[in-house]
Each structure stands twice: as structure tokens, then as C-alpha cells.
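Anyone up for a design puzzle?
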């Protein structure tokens, strides 16, 4: 599905990613962990085309996406729900979801939006309300739903649990687990390492732009170094 090979990204003269190698296989959840400034968001932006790459390769289904613009990557099947949600607060919930499907030309858009409402019933109840009326947790649900409305095969999520109440976090991770059961492939950046690793098939830990640990979700959850640095025990 996704292969990142020896990827380097720089902001001016400052290199943010140094030779990143990463793989996300079809139908799995992969967690990307690390402290603030480790390069996690930069990596997601590089994959979705929002950040220029200095060197290395990003392959999606074996095809290099070098030179492929962000909106064209959406058509290929890559959807990005960014950190901070970045929903359109002046628009309705329904219109936000329709914008997520703006590159589609098939007849299943309404069906897929109904699936979003089934996953997040509160959004269905508020579909005609403006996104500004939603709580923080509901806005995060909308950001994920908007990405899903594009019918992606690879879903990139940046900090989906940030600033949310524990009950909402649990609901969102239950949805991610359910999405995997449908065959969705997910790469998730997450500060809540315990929650992410508890459902992840595999994980990678970044420090200062380099992969320093990788392995199965459960093995990383049990790794003393990872537990001490990211789980607090």
C-alpha cells in the first residue's frame, strides 16, 4: 500500500526528516508516535503532498507520487485529516462532508456520507447546523468524516484525540477499529500512545526526524523504553 523510502524533508536549511523508512500494509492500522517536534506531522504532510520532499521516495500501490499534487493524491485514494481539524466552520455539517467528496464523480457519495452519519450519529442529528456549533469532539468527528467522504483507501489522521474528553477518545478509537474491519488502511499520528498502540497492528517511534523504534503494536506497548518515554510508566 504505502512505502516511504529514505525520506528527507527540510524547512529551508533545517532538515526535519532524516532518511525515514516506513511501510503501511493494506488493511492495517499503523501508529506514528513521538514527542512534539519529532517530525510526525511533517511526515503526514509529505505523504499527502502538502510538504515538499528533499529526497527519498513515497510509493503508493507501488507508484511514486513525486510530482503528484495534493488534490490528485486524493483521487488516488489518500485522505488527510490534519491536526487542528481545519473544518469549514461557517458551513453546515452536510456541506463539510460534501466538500470531502469534491473530487469524486461516482454515484455513491450520498451512500458514503450516510455511512459517516451511521458512525457518528450526532453528526447526522446536526447535519444542517453550522460546524461552528459543534463541540470540539464533534468537530473532530466531522474532520474524520470529511476525509472518509472522499472514499479513501489510505486514511492519514493527525492527533485525532488531541484535547478531547476520554469518552470521545474511546468512541473515536472504536470507529478506527471498525474501519480497519472494513479493509480501511490507517496511518495515525497520536500523542495518546497507549490508546494508539492498543489498536495498532504496528507502530513507529520518531525522535528528531528519525525512526528509533518500530514493531508490533503490542510489542511496542510492552517495550520498557517506549513505556518510559511515551506512556509515563
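Challenge accepted. My sequence:
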Amino acid at each position: 500500500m504505502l512505502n516511504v523510502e529514505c525520506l528527507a524533508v527540510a524547512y529551508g536549511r533545517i532538515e526535519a526528516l532524516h532518511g525515514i523508512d516506513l511501510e503501511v500494509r493494506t488493511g492495517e492500522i499503523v501508529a506514528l508516535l513521538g514527542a512534539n517536534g519529532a517530525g510526525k506531522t511533517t511526515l503526514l504532510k509529505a505523504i499527502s503532498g502538502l510538504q515538499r520532499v528533499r529526497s527519498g521516495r513515497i510509493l503508493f500501490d507501488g507508484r511514486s507520487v513525486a510530482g503528484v499534487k495534493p488534490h490528485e493524491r486524493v483521487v488516488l485514494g489518500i485522505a488527510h485529516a490534519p491536526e487542528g481539524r481545519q473544518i469549514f466552520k461557517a458551513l453546515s455539517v452536510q456541506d463539510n462532508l460534501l466538500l470531502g467528496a469534491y473530487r469524486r464523480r461516482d454515484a455513491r457519495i450520498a451512500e458514503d456520507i450516510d455511512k459517516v452519519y451511521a458512525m457518528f450519529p450526532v453528526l447526522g442529528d446536526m447535519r444542517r447546523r453550522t460546524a461552528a456549533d459543534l463541540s470540539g469532539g464533534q468537530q473532530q468527528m466531522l474532520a474524520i468524516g470529511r476525509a472518509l467522504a472522499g472514499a479513501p483507501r489510505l486514511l492519514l489522521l493527525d492527533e485525532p484525540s488531541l484535547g478531547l474528553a476520554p469518552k470521545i477518545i474511546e468512541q473515536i478509537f472504536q470507529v478506527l477499529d471498525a474501519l480497519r474491519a472494513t479493509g480501511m488502511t490507517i496511518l495515525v499520528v497520536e500523542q495518546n500512545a497507549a490508546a494508539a498502540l492498543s489498536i495498532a497492528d504496528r507502530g513507529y517511534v520518531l525522535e528528531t526526524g528519525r525512526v528509533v523504534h518500530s514493531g508490533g503494536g503490542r510489542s511496542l506497548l510492552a517495550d520498557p523504553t517506549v513505556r518510559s518515554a511515551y506512556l509515563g510508566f
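A detail worth pointing out: The chain has two domains: 2-77+154-231, 88-151.
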